[in-house]
Amino acid sequence: MTRMRAKARHYSIVVVDIERFGSRTNPVQQWLRDRLYELVDEALDETGVDRAAAPPPSDRGDGFFWLLPGDVDKVDLTGRFVGLLHDKLRAHSMTSNAEGAMRLRVALHSGDVAWDGRGWQGEELNTACRLVDLPALRAVLTEAVRAQVALAVTGDWYRRVIQQDYPEVERAAFRRVPFDAKEIRGESAWIRVPGYDTPPGTPPPDESDGDGPDDLGPRQPGGPTAQGEQPIGVYIDVKGPVAGPVGGDLTVQGDFRVDQSSGRDRDDLDRSR
Asked: What pTM was estimated for this model as a whole?
């Protein structure tokens, strides 16, 4: 008998994981799990996320993932939801001892996920779950002693949400890190820690292959060399028997003139003569 194909739907995927969960006693773990569900639920409510059409969260022991409808506003999830969750965890920690305090790693991604009758499956879900366990994210949260949350998003989420420069998401506070995990190779993730200008322990933009807030991807040949700069068009007109270096490795013979008007081609220069 042929099994029917599981039909996928598009979701925003939220994964949360409690730091140092396995080091707690069983009663404390149970209490933390109860509080985690309460706090995430409250933060989503206050963000205005409608979960009526969403499946219930799926437990992972030390956390869970929640598949939210694909039309949920991703800017709200990245900015307001994470901020509210951070504040609620801080309030929780103020009334708890060190054993009962709770800090979270949070991952955001989106894509097609299917229910196969036994559970949820799909490449995008795997990616989100790999992301929340990223060693770089763990290390950042360890160093960010003032924070309650460390957030990681995939490169796709970054391009479609953070890179659009909405003020709610604090684009300048994100830094890129390598995302290599099992079947994932050569990808990048982006990390942010609420309350920090940059995530502790991550390299500054000029040491991390252009991963600063203004990085829009590889520069194209002939394109701008930096934000706000335009390429310089250079046209050399040889006229006579003079030889000498012009600059760099370029040497010419004859009289010459150099026009540095941005973007002007040879026809424009000829017409101006």
From this structure: 0.74
CB 136 within 8 A of CB 191: yes
User: How far is 156 from 81, CA to CA, in rounded Å?
Assistant: 19
Taking the CB of residue 23, how many other CB atoms lie within 10 A of it?
9
Which ranges of 146-253 would DSSP assign to H, the alpha helix?
155-160
Q: Write out pLDDT tens, residues 99-125.
A: 889 999 999 999 999 999 899 999 999
Burial classification of residue 46, based on how many CB atoms lie within 10 Å of its CB (0-12 exposed, 13-18 middle, 19 or more buried): middle
Q: How far is CA 2 from the centre of its chain?
A: 40
Distance CA 15, CA 26 (A): 22
CB of 49 within 8 A of CB of 81? yes
Among 132, 21, 141, 151, smallest CA distance to 81 is for 151
Residue % of the chain over a pLDDT of 90: 63
Residue bearing tokens 């504040």: 87
Q: Rounded to whole angstroms, how far apart are CA atoms 211 and 133? A: 21
The dihedrals phi and psi of 95, each to the nearest 5 degrees, come to -110, 15
Contact 214, 225 (CB under 8 A): no
Q: How far is CA 14 from CA 33, 96, 141, 174, 258, in A?
A: 16, 26, 18, 18, 56
